[in-house]
Amino acid sequence: MIKVTTFGAAGEIGRSCILIEDKDRKILLDCGLKIRPNKPTVAPKGILKHVKDIQNVILSHAHFDHSGYIPRLVKDGYKGDIHMTHPTKDIIAVLWRDHLKIEGERHWTENDMYDALYQIALHYYEREFKVADGVTAKFYDAGHILGAASILLDWDGQLIFYTGDINTFQTPYHDGNKFPTLEDISLVISEATNGLRDLPNRNRPNKEFVQAIHQTRNRGGISLVPTFALGRGQELEAILARNLIGSDYQIYCDGMLLKMNRIYRNYFHEYWVSKDILQWCKEHRLEVPFDLPNFIPISRNLADNLDTFRKMIVTEDRPNIILSTSGMLEGGPIHTYLNYGGDRKENLIALTGYQVEGTIGRQVLDGERTIRLFNWGRSKGMEANITAEVRHFSFSGHAQRNELIKMLKAINGEQMIFVHSLEEAAKAARSAFDNKKNIHVPKMNQTIKIQA
What we know:
This protein is α/β, with parallel strands linked by helices. It is 28% helix and 24% strand.
């Protein structure tokens, strides 16, 4: 009998951590931290007591809510391999270092991080690898971010499919997720992030975003685009490149976005990204979309005083577009741009990602127009008034409800577990299936038994 225990991401989004075991073997899928605005991160509850019995850890992708607690496993004695794709290793090396700057060594130390990086085993998509006696795994392209994977386990002939975070839509860098077309999958463990909602395909938000950029220019404004460093930032760069090529827009890129751009450049070939974007770049003699001459990375090479330079580009009379972290306005250079440009009514603040409850981005989205910024070393921050136009664009890195249900029905697993969603979203996804008895919406630390 196989048992599945959810140590995180059950009835919530964050700290994904799923243990699959039988009497002889334990395999861990993901091990992340839950990020909370202005509060300490939260670890998966109870996983550490299993650390020394886990044979292997398999990481679906780099996002911190899936990867952020892995160094703690190593700190507490985990000695096995940590399996992932090649881009995922490069990305987590950046994310883990950044976390140490933000939260310090609360969960794990720098040495723990290096030890974890040393234990990584790298794999390509759709190539089988061994994780325990009688257990093999295979990665499938999840279409979520660079290197993201769904995981197929063959456990003594019993097939278990874990979606990780998936996106079914075509996006600038990805063609949508892939999944095994097998008839005998015993269990599917699926995300249900958008279990309550359907979203338009990417054509509509892409078009609306570019239109808003043009409208802002026409009224003499500058577009401020807070963005996630990983995935969303590169998508927005590609959208702007394809729509504004040959224009006189200056597109400034700032913050951790630049570190992730370097990783995307390293993996910009057909094994990891869509052939469509490769062909477009080839036609325009570009190595990557953000190599267009009007894309300008913000660095010390431009100016000794970056604060002065940022003030200049957000206040000058030019059709500037500024892409900067962080995507939820919680920190990063975007605070400087908001301080100097957020109070100009002709400007645009384009929110392009989900804004978590309690974040500054969510406050602005909900209509708050006096916010507190923290980039000047003041413990209480400083107030800024927002009079710029605020718009939200429905980009999502996750499968929307109808497409998720369609995929899961095609896979047709005998049993299903919904994770990585609020409880009501998971239950809404479950309602689309006839045989609800075999579809589970687990609580935190709940163990579900799967019969062979």
